[in-house]
Design brief:
Chains A, B: It holds the Pfam family polyprenyl_synt. Two copies of one chain form a homodimer. Chain A is an all-alpha fold. Chain A has 14 helices and two strands, in the order H-H-H-H-E-E-H-H-H-H-H-H-H-H-H-H. In chain A, strands 1-2 form a two-stranded antiparallel ribbon. In chain A, a hairpin with a 2-residue loop joins strand 1 and strand 2. In chain A, helix 4 runs antiparallel to helix 9, helix 10 packs antiparallel against helix 13 and helix 13 packs antiparallel against helix 14. At the A-B interface, helix 2, helix 4, helix 6, helix 7 and helix 8 of A face helix 2, helix 4, helix 6, helix 7 and helix 8 of B.
């Protein structure tokens, strides 16, 4: 028999505590981030596994940094449906690995040719270009392998989740958005064109993170799912508008990546289209629309509401 | 009522005829290849879909060429378990898209820097490097999305197939083999090291193609599955040994890709390790071991046997 031991110092939220049991958003966010860090560490192949250099590089780009916005969205959406932790971990890490792979390939010399990411040298700088290419390729594969893990319960639902993530990541989603972005340099896009590009490039994966999180729990009604989808689409755009604002207002040290590079590359952004105050106004509008979509969920959406406010007002 | 019409000329095998109904290997192979071509054309996003240039490039690299060895293996293995055509098409195309993505990334300047593939300019030559990067990324995603299609019947089996393909493609499979290959340039590998590299780089996907084809049909006994796995591992190695022989004996026009490039790049091959006649002898040994593994299947393995002979004696 074990006896209860009274703690002599205030407990910090350990990785083993379920984020869904934590009340305050300020405590919840680092707890989820710590969970994701630990889960990625567990899911990624060990550096001891052959080929060690590739696995080292996969771990270098995936661990030890990042806001983990997509995992946070998955966890927050999971609270709408009472999703169990082990499912949320696998689903959130799968989305994060897709995101990280896209960053590694985006930073390559033939794309953005960037040297700084999350405050550290980019993968092809720290390792080399061929390894960075294979790291991106392997992280994408790892994401889909993760979604085949034996924790999701219903295999039919699991297939739906894999389909959703694949569609959001591929040529009709994130990668397609990057291709439009490549073709847009030096061009003037109007607002609908810019929205399509971002809906694919950033929005599709943000939406997938949110829906996958909710799909980890109890089945939703069609109405609830539509409302969450409406939320996820607006939140995805909101995230991008705020990113554009930060790209021209924050400095490189705060962002942990090269600031001002969109303007330098003559890429169209919401700031170049609407001006800084116009972009800020648009962000507020999107925030209001996002929160409006969450009304049907009542108190269960508290975490998503707080996360939306965080996304709107973040400084990095 | 329709009356039977006697054909005035010998019928050629149309794309609509199921390959499993065709007796002769010489007829079966082009029929499967035509099926794969048509299925890929159907599965890949249309060039009309935004972004058109990315979809054009995905179609350019995937359609109109290739021996389709992996799809042929999937179809031949499918005959062991009576696999239906629509499942075989989806599974075989998924494996082929993984293969094509790996070729596109392998040909990039930071990897093999090759200009010729399947007798045509490589993707980054015909389009450009950023598009070639996104083409590879998107084809990988497309492969996994294909395996979520609603044709496979049992979702649990479908999850197993996705897991198998992911494991075969990622850092512990094909991409891992490429990383070992990168690290091996200018080194002398012994035979076990060379076998590990090829077991991952080429063998893993050949094995996956074979097992996925069989998984499209009736469930196999554990013994049958083990025998097929033994076949698939030996056949994967056989394919690579023959590739190494052709790389130093065939010319560029016949291969449709740059001949002699492994030797030029000082990469270890079976020919550099065993000499040309030693490599040929090893290929015959592997062929015998492969066929031995198929004995348990009796007459149902006829197609796999014929395909193994084709792989052994191919000239390109």
């Amino acid at each position: 028999m074990t006896s209860a031991v009274a703690p002599t110092a205030p407990l910090t939220h350990a990785v083993s505590e379920s984020p869904s049991q934590i009340a305050a958003f300020a405590d919840w966010m680092p707890a989820v981030q710590a969970h994701i860090e630990a889960a990625l560490d567990r899911f990624l192949p060990s550096s001891d596994a052959i080929p060690g250099r590739l696995h080292d590089a996969m771990r270098y780009v995936s661990l030890g940094g990042g806001k983990r916005v997509r995992p946070l969205l998955a966890f927050a959406a999971g609270e709408l449906t009472g999703a169990p932790l082990e499912r949320l971990e696998a689903a959130a890490c799968a989305v994060e690995l897709i995101h990280v792979y896209s960053l590694v390939h985006d930073d390559l010399p033939c794309m953005d040719d960037d040297v700084l990411r999350r405050g550290r040298p980019t993968c092809h700088i720290e390792f080399d270009e061929p390894i960075a290419l294979l790291v991106g390729d392997s992280l994408q594969t790892c994401a889909f392998e993760l979604l085949t893990h034996d924790v999701f319960g219903d295999p039919a639902r699991q297939i739906e989740m894999i389909r959703l993530l694949a569609h959001a990541s591929g040529s009709l989603g994130m990668a397609g958005g990057q291709a439009i972005d490549l073709g847009s340099v030096g061009k003037t896009l109007d607002q609908p064109e810019l929205e399509l590009m971002h809906a694919l490039k950033t929005g599709a994966l943000i939406r997938a993170a949110t829906l996958l999180g909710a799909l980890c729990g109890e089945a939703m009604s069609a109405d609830a799912r539509n409302a969450l989808d409406r939320y996820a689409r607006r939140a995805g755009l909101l995230f991008q508008v705020v990113d554009d604002i930060l790209d021209c207002t924050a400095n490189t040290a705060t962002l942990g990546k090269t600031a001002g590079k969109d303007a330098a590359a003559d890429k169209p952004t919401y700031v170049s289209l609407l001006g800084l105050s116009g972009a800020r106004h648009f962000a507020e509008e999107l925030r209001a629309e996002s929160l409006d979509a969450l009304r049907v969920f009542g108190a269960r959406a508290e975490r998503l509401i707080a996360l939306t406010d965080f996304i709107t007002h973040r400084k990095f």
